[in-house]
User: Fold these one by one.
Assistant:
Number 1:
Amino acid sequence: MSDQFDPVIILVEPQLGENIGAAARAMLNCGLKRMRIVRPRDGWPNARALAAASGADAVIEAAEIFESTSAAIADLNYVLATTARQRDMVKTILTPEVAAEELHARASALQRTGILFGPERTGLMNDDIPLADAVVTIPVNPAFSSLNLAQGVLLIGYCWWRMQVQSEGRHLEIGGNRPATKQEMVNLFVRLEEALEEGGFYTTDQQRPTMVRNMRNLLQRAEMTEQEVRTFHGVIVALNGTSGSAKEKRRPR
Amino acid sequence: MSDQFDPVIILVEPQLGENIGAAARAMLNCGLKRMRIVRPRDGWPNARALAAASGADAVIEAAEIFESTSAAIADLNYVLATTARQRDMVKTILTPEVAAEELHARASALQRTGILFGPERTGLMNDDIPLADAVVTIPVNPAFSSLNLAQGVLLIGYCWWRMQVQSEGRHLEIGGNRPATKQEMVNLFVRLEEALEEGGFYTTDQQRPTMVRNMRNLLQRAEMTEQEVRTFHGVIVALNGTSGSAKEKRRPR
């Protein structure tokens, strides 16, 4: 099993099957497949959990059930407890981002890890927190910090997932096209400038160089594909073919 | 209004009131308050949206309704479109993290920004995407990438919120206590070592320095508070007061 060092998501005494299902779905969105449940209120299996998983059925079907939190974490080396509110305890508090780093570092060191989530209404019991190495608190809007179970799982799972998935922060999607070469761009510029000249766009020779530079800068910013350059040639031709009266209108500018 | 440069969340033709409400809740979790809605399927106001907002009522009540996407973004300077699947378009694609940077940079430049979310079933229409400057795609598990509307709003909102909120990645929560001083730690070490000596813990003088160093390192790692140091002194006293038979058992090690 290649995911044996991925964090286990441990739901402690979850109340609603719907929330268990939604948590399973959020887990799978983030590539997490291992769920454990401590004393689910409505027993197990739970048809509502399966229905709410909408596609993440395998996570629900493979979920392991335990009688106590300590049994559910017995084989793990490093455990985080999620809490929304501050507890009166001396405990290390991590952001989800730092928790994700820590979980990946532990996995690299072949340690098994898990994240505890408490019941919907109350959160983790005070006695469960000392079983964990540290606490994760999601720093949402302090004026409105209530997150449901699945949203908590989603945010922490996403931070974990993002750290293992390399993706370019910004890229231009160009499908089957290729970026235009600079020769193609210059050909386009020249074609456009000739057409503009013909159309009376440049009112004075003095202004011309500035106007040319501005337009070239604008078109460079568009990062055209080769296909788009060809389309743009067509646009120039089409506009050049407009009626004389339209050209008349343009001339006075 | 101090939030006029915060991104507007624009729901285009949302179907279920529940999802509008859940999106409002996710927005407020991330400190986002400005919602616009284009042609809500079930009309407006929508009682289900208000019920599902569970506390984020103000966001729903202040939501503005528009007849078209272009009307909803008319006063904005920079608009992002969220899409899950790849479209056959030449378009810049951002991760939520880079999108968040971009939105904050635009706000600093006093630009007004917005993020478009499409209908639940289909996502944004192909004609809405060219109205946006760039696309944001949330890089979740490609094998299971379906996120509901509110989860999409939550993840993108969270990335935006995290970038403006400074929070220590890791800190030790110690409540009203203060960290122990090194003098207090050394006093504790000495007390413990004396008690261990007395209890026959150090079998040979040769091993003693290593055993002392190991135990001191262990206790240093616990980053004790002044209160905990005092408690630990009490622990030593209590253990030292155990019956002679318990001490006998320890001796042979």
Number 2:
Amino acid sequence: MTDPTGRTRLLGVVGDPVAQVRAPELWGTVFRELGVDAVCVPFHVRPTDLEAFLDGARRWRNLDGLLITVPHKAAAMRFATELSDRARQVGAVNCLKVGESGGWVADMLDGVGFVTAFEGGIGPVGGRRALVVGCGGAGSAIALALADAGASAVDVSDVDGARANELADRVSATGVLSRPVAALGRGYDLIVNASPAGMRSTDPLPVDLDGVGPDAAVADVITEPAVTPLIREATQRGCAVQIGSQMTDAQVGGMADFFGYAAAFAEPLR
Amino acid sequence: MTDPTGRTRLLGVVGDPVAQVRAPELWGTVFRELGVDAVCVPFHVRPTDLEAFLDGARRWRNLDGLLITVPHKAAAMRFATELSDRARQVGAVNCLKVGESGGWVADMLDGVGFVTAFEGGIGPVGGRRALVVGCGGAGSAIALALADAGASAVDVSDVDGARANELADRVSATGVLSRPVAALGRGYDLIVNASPAGMRSTDPLPVDLDGVGPDAAVADVITEPAVTPLIREATQRGCAVQIGSQMTDAQVGGMADFFGYAAAFAEPLR
């Protein structure tokens, strides 16, 4: 890209930490392809500072929107005045823009991004028995999107048992079988890590792959490292795998629509 | 430049409007030369939103600082917890950074930038009879810096007569003759426009150049258009001229010091 100018529009990405995010490069490429004069800017904001950050950002006249990442996805929802149904169902958001009233409009695309990537790369979700490990914003979005896409069961696991119970109840309410379970992969066709375990090299595997064979697919939402120990282990077992950046990349079309960058992409998200 | 990444540090430039600012390109070049992974980002912020903007920005963990431009230079001073002597004297600031206490530290480099550019490009300020038109943040900084650099007199003019009176008093207090006057250039060796007149093509000339000859130097602080009608008229009269971007460019070294980007530049500001 060339340097920004005074006319360049802003797309922020907000996280804590933020050094690991890929959004600035990913959106830099998108902006060049679309011919949009905008730059994706990282903002490192602590959880206690999120409210003041959003109160300030709402007033930037040259802001197109914000991408929300860990650990702010659930907290950011509280500041939205307009929510998509899926964001309300998930209880978390990953994109914000300022609406006509001056308040935040929010959506949550992690779930549809995950399913879009999976069905484009590995195959249909329909009929699979899924296990989602990690019941935060991304995990909740993925579990609910897998249920919506026809998974036969979506079990969920979290180190915080109450959080797993609560998500299992929400998935069950959609009519798809869901139980809070331990993080044991045996018996599932689709195993998803949506917990932070794997970001640090000293982390244990987020899910036990004992007994998991090549018929199962294994996915991770972590983007740094690109290939986590879980993905490496799954590859050795012959499983089809999906890495975190694939979920992120698959959200670009939907986000470009949300932020108003492009009326239509080649493969719009649902 | 390459696209920003999640690790890229931020230098903001805050104005209303902001489309005309040259800082993003200027600092983009500086960052490349210094090998600093940072990006200068424009923020369009209305005066009524400045407080909330600064309250949010103070919390960005990857912020190196903010450049403050029209119309926020005087207002931003109110939010600084630590001020340089010259900023206090001028009553306005043009750069902010977060200090160790978490509050804003502020300085005002417009005046020294103006004098540095002038003495490097046109000649000594010492002994000149100066007229400064426009008594806002930039005009105040320039008037006081000209007095400090040895001008024999620094008269000031503003459409708001009370503002001109007040600045004349502050310049006089430094021991240099200063009177509030009409915007008539005749009889001065150094004529500076520090008012916004000239940003729009329909603006009248900010100062009457009738009787001004080639011995006088004429300067403008406006950066867009690069060459204002005043500068064009002065050039036709054979005057030496200084355009707005020269004042801006001459502040880069001092600002790089202020923001901690470089221990030393080839020609550090005083």
Number 3:
Amino acid sequence: MYDHAEILTIGAELLKGSTLNTNAQFLGRELTQLGFRVVAQTSCGDAIPEIAARLKDALNRSTVIVLTGGLGPTPDDLTREAVASYFQVPLVFSKEQFSNIRKYYRRHAKPAKRLIPELVRKEALYPENAVPLINRFGIALGFYLRQGRQWIFVLPGVPAELEKMFKQNIVRLLKKNFAELSAKPHLVVKMVGLSEPEIMTKLGRDFFDPPFEFGIYPAPGEVAIRIHAEKQSVIRQLKQKIKRRLGSSVYAYEEISLAEAIGKILTAKKQSLAAAESCTGGKLSAEITHVPGASLYFKGGITVYSNEWKENLGVPKHLIQAKGAVSPEVAWLLAEKVRLYAKSTYGLGVTGIAGPSGGSKRKPVGLVYISVAGPKHSKGGQHLFWGDREQVRTKAVKKALEYLWREIR
Amino acid sequence: MYDHAEILTIGAELLKGSTLNTNAQFLGRELTQLGFRVVAQTSCGDAIPEIAARLKDALNRSTVIVLTGGLGPTPDDLTREAVASYFQVPLVFSKEQFSNIRKYYRRHAKPAKRLIPELVRKEALYPENAVPLINRFGIALGFYLRQGRQWIFVLPGVPAELEKMFKQNIVRLLKKNFAELSAKPHLVVKMVGLSEPEIMTKLGRDFFDPPFEFGIYPAPGEVAIRIHAEKQSVIRQLKQKIKRRLGSSVYAYEEISLAEAIGKILTAKKQSLAAAESCTGGKLSAEITHVPGASLYFKGGITVYSNEWKENLGVPKHLIQAKGAVSPEVAWLLAEKVRLYAKSTYGLGVTGIAGPSGGSKRKPVGLVYISVAGPKHSKGGQHLFWGDREQVRTKAVKKALEYLWREIR
């Protein structure tokens, strides 16, 4: 049996789409990892009756409720007031948080601004029936309440503050009080090169018998599977089946990206990489360097966005004229030449038409040539990606990394 | 008076945090722009009773409800079934969508895979009381229902499909049926270089008198203001005030990115650009080339991720040794040298420490030097950005574009 958890994110900026709700994702992932079944996530506006109504709904469904947002200093921030009003208790003042606020202003503000605005006193308030959660990363106090087996956590909406407070305070509290949950066995499988229906077909119907909790999550160019089961032995058996049926497409059995998986292999083998990209325009390099420590194996990348830059790298002008800048020959030479230039073990080359314009009947928008050059040989292929400019670019990046991964694994 | 709208996003991947809910942001922004007041956004799991219960809640609150997700081919996709069950009607089959699916398979799949899996037939089903919305960008049929003044739209969860279907079908339907909302005059102001409190101080209290609907939305490195008012004359007056008080930081009075604003100026002036970046690792180039038509002015970019690459571009080895790879001198030379290499009007240089490791007391994580070189002079500066690796990189990219924009505007 699971305990239900839910997430309540508060603020007009979420409803109006001004802010992307990364807090909901962070909390969903954390609560799931702790072993809770997250049953709902709700965003509502900064109004006391709305917040109180959503809190009431949540208390009817869930054991653990995390509220974020609406703890700021301005009059439209009303989450403290809403929780206090729901429980019909007054707000009280945390001297400890206020001394933190004072320190914060001393450290961060320009001298002229070191006086704490009256408005900000509010940030140290919490409902009388709650336990304050000191915020050392910002100025808004958090707090939590316990009602029998139910827990309500109220945290600031600034993502960095929320994440640090959750990891440093809430995880410990929940692990201690829901010890039986944390232990639930699970399995993550991250794959490239297969679509969702292909994966389902390869797994086959018998895979799902006897039943267990299964989720399949497609993202551009890759698919993840996440499985939870009651026993570790079930997880072990499922992993064996997955290895046999999907193994050649699995790049990780953990929550890492393809670029991270590649980074691990290149670091372990002491090999290096360089990239020359046209239509992806820097996204391939950016994806590679998103991984901390990428400088250990990634020497550099060139966005060859003009024919001049392609020629400077060593792609002959006559070849571009004869075959076109979007051709398998150019992709191949980009990979070869950037590898030579960088003196790296591998070189990646990408050229294509990201759109929305620039396509033709023979070379439509979405056409991308990818090549990987290594110490022994080069490999490459032609792809026709579906979607708008950014989707074509994203899929081309993922496919280029897939080519590389198949070479080095 | 506003009409209330709300968003119902369906899928365990959202609750578990496997997927970031970009659809909620997209829909929130679109519905707000159409003039609706978005009062709630809810995510729930793929279960018929849950979806039906959330739909019932929404129908008690809102005039327009948009559901997305759970229209896929696998057995855990249950949104069609849930809506049909809520209205107690059967599902019927859309021949038109199925012929689209057939075309889709013919065009995209490898010859061996052109047979349509039985599973996929489900994607052409819709509740009998609904109007089908043909999906030309994917295989899942959408649909909508009308109940008096209330509208329910059900769209696929794949962001590209959702966005295209919303823009091509739903916007038109809503504009026609809620004409009084859409006409509402509004103003968008996009700014760089000022924080939210700085903007509020510069606007002053008198700006808000008499009252109107005002939203201020900070994003990494920039802030947007969105204003709605009853009369166009009010909007005109507010725009004049904003020009006087904030004008030097406004890069656009429309919904475009800073990179797009830069692209417009460079295209009009027939000037060109190149970039050499270290810590941003390709993200600066990627942001520039995200703009369609960037090849008109962007010659190329180099991710100088190793000292070797910096030296190859023309930064002297002894200078890197003396000053460090993260120094104002290196940023300046990156900008100058890439400008010379590209023979472009402008060159951008970025070097810094994105973290999480690599920082020191003198050069902490988040320290970034940025330089822009032009035909007349170079400008640059030192910045200390707060946040994790990706936040530091994103802020550095935005700041580099800000330097360039201030040079060329």
Number 4:
Amino acid sequence: MLRDDFQAVRQRSLHLAAPLSNEDCCAQSMPDASPIKWHLAHTTWFFETFILEARERDFRPFHSAFRVLFNSYYNGVGAKHPRAQRGLLTRPSLDEVKAYRADVDARMLRLLEAEGGDAALAALVTLGLQHEQQHQELMLTDVKHLLAQNPIAPGYDGEGMAPDSPPGPLAFIDFDGGLVEIGFDGRGFCFDNELPRHRSYVAPFALASRLVTNGEYAAFIEAGGYRDPALWLAEGWDRVASGELAAPLYWRRQEDNSWREFTLHGEVPLDPARPVTHLSLYEADAYARWCGARLPTEAEWEFAARLASIEAGRLHPEAAAGQGLTQMFGACWQWTSSSYAPYPGYAPAPGAIGEYNGKFMVNQYVLRGSSCATPGGHARASYRNFFPAYARWQFTGIRLAR
Amino acid sequence: MLRDDFQAVRQRSLHLAAPLSNEDCCAQSMPDASPIKWHLAHTTWFFETFILEARERDFRPFHSAFRVLFNSYYNGVGAKHPRAQRGLLTRPSLDEVKAYRADVDARMLRLLEAEGGDAALAALVTLGLQHEQQHQELMLTDVKHLLAQNPIAPGYDGEGMAPDSPPGPLAFIDFDGGLVEIGFDGRGFCFDNELPRHRSYVAPFALASRLVTNGEYAAFIEAGGYRDPALWLAEGWDRVASGELAAPLYWRRQEDNSWREFTLHGEVPLDPARPVTHLSLYEADAYARWCGARLPTEAEWEFAARLASIEAGRLHPEAAAGQGLTQMFGACWQWTSSSYAPYPGYAPAPGAIGEYNGKFMVNQYVLRGSSCATPGGHARASYRNFFPAYARWQFTGIRLAR
Amino acid sequence: MLRDDFQAVRQRSLHLAAPLSNEDCCAQSMPDASPIKWHLAHTTWFFETFILEARERDFRPFHSAFRVLFNSYYNGVGAKHPRAQRGLLTRPSLDEVKAYRADVDARMLRLLEAEGGDAALAALVTLGLQHEQQHQELMLTDVKHLLAQNPIAPGYDGEGMAPDSPPGPLAFIDFDGGLVEIGFDGRGFCFDNELPRHRSYVAPFALASRLVTNGEYAAFIEAGGYRDPALWLAEGWDRVASGELAAPLYWRRQEDNSWREFTLHGEVPLDPARPVTHLSLYEADAYARWCGARLPTEAEWEFAARLASIEAGRLHPEAAAGQGLTQMFGACWQWTSSSYAPYPGYAPAPGAIGEYNGKFMVNQYVLRGSSCATPGGHARASYRNFFPAYARWQFTGIRLAR
Amino acid sequence: MLRDDFQAVRQRSLHLAAPLSNEDCCAQSMPDASPIKWHLAHTTWFFETFILEARERDFRPFHSAFRVLFNSYYNGVGAKHPRAQRGLLTRPSLDEVKAYRADVDARMLRLLEAEGGDAALAALVTLGLQHEQQHQELMLTDVKHLLAQNPIAPGYDGEGMAPDSPPGPLAFIDFDGGLVEIGFDGRGFCFDNELPRHRSYVAPFALASRLVTNGEYAAFIEAGGYRDPALWLAEGWDRVASGELAAPLYWRRQEDNSWREFTLHGEVPLDPARPVTHLSLYEADAYARWCGARLPTEAEWEFAARLASIEAGRLHPEAAAGQGLTQMFGACWQWTSSSYAPYPGYAPAPGAIGEYNGKFMVNQYVLRGSSCATPGGHARASYRNFFPAYARWQFTGIRLAR
């Protein structure tokens, strides 16, 4: 079964790259984003470096340069190619990277056959697959950013996108809180940053029944939301004043003053029914302040999320549908007001693998839920995603709290 | 009595500037620091703008340009002189700024005489005085930074500084925690960011009996602490790799490999008994990790601090003395692992005065306690100081936790 | 015959791209360099925009976006895609750009058939072909820079490169100078910056018989040439002190202290016999000062060059061979001490085409001769190449003067 | 007599500083400009380092740190304080620097008494005085730049400035040119960059009878001069497009669309009769192109200047008066199209003193004449001033040529 999972996840990465040309897979549009080809190689490197290198008899790397070339940030592994120059790696070619994948896959499957019952191996393989699923989401958000730089505005998927049905009014749902348990509850897989499960006091609160829509956010803009410093964190206002922030990342004002939005389906008229997405924490926070609300803490969000059903999306968030607490998963990652910090008693794994999460626990903020780009089966209530407050190229959205 | 406080605090600012020349008072060594003259003017501007302008009959500003010139960051007040160019304001002269102070003081005293019983006025005046005390600490840390840029290494105070007596060994003191009350308890003054008092769950923890010393930190350096990426947050390691971080801010390696330290008393041999100071959060965190400990959360710190006595220091932190929990106040501000965030239910004051704290609650970290440069009477257990993780020019130090 | 030239030059650009993958043709390694695909498109854009658009009946652009996308720097034509983002244009694909070339070529050939006798048209077509030849040289130097960023060090041409025979000793050849005529003499094609031919007084001078070799330049390095500020222009020394300049651009120091050089044939041991290349003006000037010589002025160089034979090279400069004044053409462009300035009475052409040369006549320096990457038939004695003093990615070398 | 010159020049520097406060003398408004106090110290350092250190028996420096602190750019002398941090040197105080001046002056006078007949000494002292005169001009332009940053717009001189009488129309005066002698003719002092005198061929040309006025330049702005890329060098247009260049440095547009100009006499209404000043080479070149003229070469300027009378100015350029070739000296430095390059056969002096001129001969442009801030007696026809093309804080102006 792990073997089946392995093949399914590995196959899906190639499937995501299928609509793209070799050139699309090679370019890098900013240091924060990586080329598709690099994602395909790095997720393979993870298995080769952390599993095959340790366990394969007579280990010989597929290519002597790849250990450095496709190391993302593991100082414990050694040197790494500079992040901002990943787009210059026109060699190895995409075909060579696919050959690299095939070779490592075959060796991994042989290893799984031979040592399948080994729990430590199974845990590492599972980590590798979860890691690859995280990169699958990045493949979509990174290539979206790349295609958005092109004046021709090519879509990742040529199907187009029709307007969605308007959602019902936004309501606030009350929660009691109290001294609650936060963190992974022990069923299935989790990353180390969801541990240890621990007690936290949560005062009574209310959470919005759905995400903020494009239509609601457009009203904020028209009302002068980007012109009133009183609505903004000081750092956010600096970015507004410099012109960096003036609307969500992929909104494009037309000459008739209407908006269009660049999506993975290409550029389309802004759909007022769908959730607003590709916002910084600064914008989410300013919007919340404008309407007399605030962002939730991650403990509040997690407490409420136990009631929510986990759904998967596809390429762009859909409008809310149904009653009660909706869109907790499968539409947009939801900014919280919680900085990314270790849970009480948190300890990273020893060795290079311990660099996975812990060393990033400063100056980032937690996002909860999942997005339309998150692979099916990857989300859970205790999941902690994290990005800097200024980051906008993920499918981020706004869940209000009070 | 408010009148006496007013005169005492206002007088102390001038007293702090007394050892300095007009040139010392005008220069600005980095955008984060301000000239002494600017501090003297801005603290006066606070009273003129937020009190006299609103309450003085036939209000006429002392100088028509000062409203913009000495506005620090209050967008609600209007335009402001660019922060990085405060050192270019050779006019008004120091004498003119002193005349500005004398004029505003006289008008404030007249107002206090006339409307002394007004509680809202008293609250604003008290806020203005607490504000000025914060700037008094900055006057010392800013001028220290300025003098440190000078190859001649001039001291602020010519008295010199003798080595202190070695402190006892560092011990850990256990605390039970539990569901505790955090935030201002209602006696005396507090800033709005200490409110509202609220419940928080604190798991059992231990806190170091004193701050980490120079001698202990030097051992960390000699052991290769700045060469091992496994000890560092990723952002911190980037700053180590770029050469920005290699030792505490004012340590200077000598040709014989010994250390000297620049202090407000000039450059002296590093005293191993005194607490290490002028560190970033990255360094404090790396040191803690190196010795198997961690930094406290602000709730842990505040819970423990209720037992501690509040003392004031003078120009440089002294070595720990005595038993139990020492150096909570009066030596160095202590980095916590808590990001600066609003307490549950926090609401800033309406209007420009509400920009005092709230808009800075992102990408900064809380420091607790007080330092040798904090004015007497200004500290309390619930006080929340905050700076970016990279900031080193304050008297910051390390309190370990477990 | 113009028709034949047209087909030959156009064909050669595709021939230069043939050894490269689609990914190689798309990436951009720095703002100064452009992707191969962009060169292929821009040289086509030149014909479409400056000729077809003006002369074709019922002109319809091949693609409505290309006019902006492939405009390099002609403000007179209108908007242009940002130079630093040319590498993000994964669309149009290389195949689409080849289709663009084929379409424009067919239309151009029809036009030439119809209006072949028109002298103005012939002049514009010739300019377009000379323009394309300039880009052919850039295709090689730009892709060399790209491949050099790759730790795998892939060659453009897999043939390898054998050491060349040592040249004879460097001699100085005397020239009388006098009141001489400088500039294009009227036979064949020239760019407008070679006009008008004019008188200039040249004092007696001597020119080195060949270019400086790798072996000679290595001796300069070993003698501490990069450590002595007295040898350097102040700007150059700033770049040495910052670490930017430490050896020619593509030299790589090995652990045994020997040098290897990255070439279009891949990385090879440094050949002491071949000319040193890929140097800034600062380095050329420092080397000349070190050996008691100087760089020539462009008038001196041109005066001497009338005696020299024009040869073409291939992918890497070869060692000098023969007697007298050698390597004036076909090895390395030769830095002169002359800033790029208009000749007395120079006037650019009216309209956008006048932006070709004139607007760059500030803060650049003239290079004379031609390089191993210059297309055959493109060089002449009056040719003025120009680059900023810091530029190193062209095949630049050192001709000494006294 | 040298002794009298010494005392007069040295005295004049103090005289220039007299209207300024200690704070005015300490601040630095940009890396290109230096504090007045630094100028006073550095010009003294020149005599101490290049003369007293070599010739004084039992030489003891006035202060051990000054050799580094007040070294401008002489690598041959050793380390130097970073240029951009000169404004942080609040110590030594202005009084200490004056004491330094008095001490070195006394020692210099003793030396002159003892060794007055020594020609080498006399040459060095003369160089030191000419050097100090250059800094006297910088004292005025640097403090003008500093005061201009202050929103209060304080004048250096409180006298005010009345409108001047309109000059006559601009005429062009013809010159024959020919094979002429350029460079210092041997009478009096010159800097090494004016040597050797050499032959140069100058084609017939015409020079404007006076400088371009504010009124004429304002017409260029109103006609859209800063909006038409066809008028600009590419580098200049980049600076226009980025907003850096929109009018001469100290022009300030009023709400009623009129102009005011910041001068050393404070801010005044723009006087259309006076010459336009504080322009970059890019602006001078664009203006010339706009009116169908060009900038002169330095050889043309020098050839013409032999007929001109040398006058001195005072704090701001005056309107042209009189017939023939006017304003060659004493109003504004005049941008030429000549890059700053060595004359044929130029050789700098050996040792650190040789760094005076030669190492700056790249990427700068020659300005000819003198300005209202140039000390009397310092100007001559062969004088070569030089600045980067973007520099605007000197009194630069436009002399047209054809």
